[in-house]
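Could you help me review a protein record that somebody else here produced? What it holds is a sequence and that sequence's fold in token form. I need someone to confirm that the token line plausibly describes how this chain folds. Take the sequence as given and treat only the tokens as open to question. This is what I was given:
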Amino acid sequence: MNTYLVPLQYAFLTFPIVAFMLTIPFLIVQYRTYGYVNKMRSFVLFSFLLYCISAYYLVILPLPQNLDNCVDLKRGAVFEQWVPFNFVNDFLKETRVDWSNPASYVHLLKERAFLQAFFNVALTIPLGIYMRYYFRRSFVQTVLVAFAVAIFFEVTQRTGLYGLYECPYRLLDVDDLILNTSGGIIGFIIAPIITYFLPRADEMDANVDLKAKTVGFIRRGIALGIDYLVLIFCVGIANIILHLGWSSTFDYSFSLESNAIFLALFVLIYFMIVPTFTNGKTFGKWMTRIQVQKDDVAEGQKRITFIALFKRYGLLYFGIYGVNYAIGLALNADLHTTIDGIVMMLLGLAWFVFNGIWVVHLLLHLFKKDKRLFYEKMSRTRNVITIPNRMRPYQPDGEPHLEMNDGQVIDVNQRKADVQDQVRQHEMSMFNTSSIDVRDVSSEGHAKQPELPIEDVQEERQAIPNQERLVEQEMERLRARIAQSSESTQRPQSSRERQQNRNEHGD
């Protein structure tokens, strides 16, 4: 049993490291694909990552002590086994179970042949569950994926960990292919039971209003980090070009203090001028699907202006960072001889207080619902989410809101709007249900529908969530009532109307 527990222990130790390394790429992919990070989707995907690590470690561990492991193998060692269902013969030869005595079944937990077959099946059961639940694969696709994974495992073993070891240290067994594939099939079959209390994978994004979501500091920090990398790269390339073009000898040394003007120029271009033409997007914001927008933006004026961007980033980069640069320049070692010690101490204290206030300001807004910092409020701008196309059907305010019903995709917002319009037309169409006035006849000669009684209107409103079918039934009932009302109504008619009725009814 320790043969299987030790790899799992290593998997749980390795998982946090791998998960941390993949966190930022994972967040960027989620932002790009869905516009936000769904907690349930994150749990499913990271649990799938843990499963993949565990399964791989179960296949390759324990490793041989020497890379030149051929000397450790016995003469005539076999590296392949191509007889199907050979594990059944091994089990029958080694088992001590008396099938007539249920108490002896406990010996199965200590028998090598049984445990090896059992864990080969159990190894890919989670794979079948993930394939059906999250990745929405069919039965045939799941079988093919399970078989491909089984082949990958066997190739890993047969090649001695892809040639790292001189000889294979595990057997390529056709029974492993059969058992691993069977595990994927079992996982596919039991997936609905295992995931019964989990939300459907295709409904995780239902009722998510991205317009109402706040852009958090983690997302903004990733975008800012990407922008800083781009900015430093551009400034560095520009410095190299200038040194090569204007200097007879190449003596390149890059520091933010010695390139203040250059850096300020690139900040102006990258954070203010470029986003004016890209509707508030830098490369980092584009990667994380956010953009800068004015607070008081009108419906027809959604493009951010240069003035708003200059206020926003001017306060941040020329204000916060500019003050830090000025104090840092004053505290430069080359100027110590010209500045009094007391002035130096005051400057250091001012730098500490200034940045302390800035850090406290950040921490306070970290736990607030309103994530806007002072420069955003003063410039009346904010970060908003750029909605991906695949998420637009789920958005309110005119955007389609899709739901699954009996295997069909239904636009809930449109359905409700249609039903409400029908009810409103019934309420406003007639002032009397007992008669049809001549003014209630349209230009085409069709009578308008009478007003619904109050109890019928309430019934119609309660039927809104129950699909258009109930509405159609109610409409048919109303048409029948209108027809009866029309037949029983007595009103004077002109000679032209009487002649027209005779022509229509064949009298």
In short: Residues 248-254, 398-409, 430-455, 457-461 have pLDDT under 50 and may be disordered. Strands lie at 80-81, 172-173, 290-294, 381-385, 402-405, 408-411. The first strand starts at residue 80 and ends at 81. The chain has 17 helices and six strands.
